[in-house]
Design brief:
By secondary structure, the chain is an alpha/beta fold. The protein contains 16 helices and 13 strands. One of its GO terms (cellular component) is cytosol.
């Protein structure tokens, strides 16, 4: 694919030890020859791929900076085009000056994500791998990072390609048999197709079901702290965050609105929300906060129910117990540094959830909470070499549609429908799966995906 030449600053726009200006396209080397001179003051007369050169960047006779230049001849580069990377001093003004010089001598400013977009359009990576690049950049925890690195290496695209190969084989067989019934028989084919469909359906079901863990990896666990006033919710919030974010007093109803923070526990990202204490109140402002807490609980991935161990359960605790009855939750028996009137065993039987004795004041029991949260969302260690986790909403949507098509094929076989009905749904599954890796995708969607990248990537 022939393209014009683009350039951008590939490192952060802040003062640093080093800055990188990236150039890619047909004129990348000719631009370099115009602006770069070696230590001896000579222009590069012969460019050998994958070499590093020491010298200076010039604008005409004006020396701009001392640099190292890496040259990569396509297709053996990130974009599969001729590519140059200029390593200069990392001042913002210096990086801008060199970029302006590069543009002056023939390149144009790159759009957001245009380098990766070219890698995709030039066939170096498929669309799912391109999307994994931004996943690597935006990863908030070790699980999201490992998953994105795995997808960049082709874990998702390999599965999709294998499924498409199996589907297209069945389509080709049906079409061939319908075109040449004298030599290719469809007798008994329905049973054989059912046997081939079942493993594909099971694999796609597994991929779709992995998307819940995938969302947790990338977006974080929506975690809501519930409890009646003065149970110790805000104290717990401060312990988890590691600083005094929530106001803590002995006055019931101090927290009247939600307070949100993003934290990492055991490699898992938590979007944690401290809420107003749940109780009946006549205070208008507090009543709004209590209603907001209930609504947050309905939308939460995880609820942390904080119980005051020093006083008996009351109607407010009972209300929260009903609220978490069929939800993913962990119960903290707080204030265990005081004389306890509620036992761990009683609370476990009452709530049906795991109960962890803690003291937010003494900061004890927090490690057990972290371990419990980890085990709730990731049962055992995840092996990213074998397991594929869907972390992209677009991929999940396509898989759900393709899975529905395969289930329709299965139903058509069971209903004794003609074989050409199978082809229609099989072809839809094939095309939808193709959209995941970019085999069948519209230009508008491609532009939308790469517009979310940073400039220089």
């Amino acid at each position: 694919m022939k393209t014009d030449t683009i350039a951008a600053i590939a490192t952060a726009m802040s003062s640093s030890g080093i800055g990188i200006i990236r150039i890619s396209g047909e004129q990348a080397f000719s631009v370099l020859q115009e602006i770069f001179r070696t230590k001896q003051g000579k222009k590069l007369d012969k460019i050998v791929s994958h070499r590093v050169h020491y010298g200076h960047i010039y604008d005409g006779n004006e020396m701009i900076d001392e640099v190292l230049v890496l040259v990569m001849r396509g297709p053996h580069s990130y974009t599969a085009e001729d590519t140059v990377e200029i390593d200069c001093h990392g001042g913002v003004l210096m990086m801008k000056k060199i970029l302006e010089t590069v543009i002056k001598y023939g390149a144009r400013p790159a759009e957001p994500g245009e380098f990766t977009k070219r890698a995709f359009l030039n066939g170096r990576i498929d669309l799912s791998q391109a999307e994994a690049v931004i996943g690597v950049i935006n990863a908030k925890n070790q699980y999201a990072l490992k998953s994105s690195v795995s997808q960049l290496a082709g874990s998702v695209s390999d599965r999709i390609k294998r499924l498409r190969e199996q589907i297209i084989y069945e389509i080709a067989f049906i079409e061939s048999a319908l075109d040449d019934p004298e030599h290719i028989s469809l007798d008994g084919y329905g049973e054989k197709l059912l046997g081939n469909l079942e493993p594909m359906i099971q694999e796609m079901e597994k991929l779709v079901s992995s998307a819940d863990n995938g969302r947790v990896m990338t977006e974080g666990v929506r975690t809501v702290i519930l409890g009646k006033p003065n149970a110790g919710k805000s104290s717990l919030m401060n312990v988890l965050v590691g600083e005094e974010r929530a106001i803590v007093t002995d006055v019931a109803g101090t927290t009247r609105d939600t307070l949100e923070e993003h934290i990492r526990l055991q490699g898992i990202s938590l979007n944690i929300i401290d809420t107003a204490g749940i109780r009946e109140t006549e205070d208008v402002v507090e009543k709004i906060g209590v209603l907001k807490a209930r609504n947050m609980a309905d939308e939460a991935d995880l609820i942390i129910f904080v119980v005051d161990a020093s006083i008996p359960l009351d109607e407010n605790d009972e209300e929260i117990i009903e609220l978490i009855r069929n939800k993913k939750a962990v119960v903290l028996l707080n204030k265990t540094d005081l004389e306890m009137t509620v036992t761990k065993e009683y609370l476990e039987e009452k709530t049906g959830h795991v109960v962890i004795p803690v003291s937010a004041k003494e900061e004890t029991g927090i490690e057990l909470l972290e371990q419990e949260i980890k085990s709730m969302f990731y049962q055992g260690e995840i092996d990213f070499n074998d397991e594929v986790t869907i972390t992209n909403v677009r991929h999940k949507t396509a898989l759900v549609e393709a899975l529905a098509s395969l289930r329709m094929v299965r139903q058509s076989v069971c209903d004794g429908m003609p074989e050409d009905f199978y082809s229609i749904d099989l072809m839809n599954a094939y095309e939808v799966l193709g959209s995941v890796i970019g085999e069948a995708v519209e230009e508008d969607l491609v532009n939308e995906i790469f517009s979310k990248f940073c400039t220089g990537k």
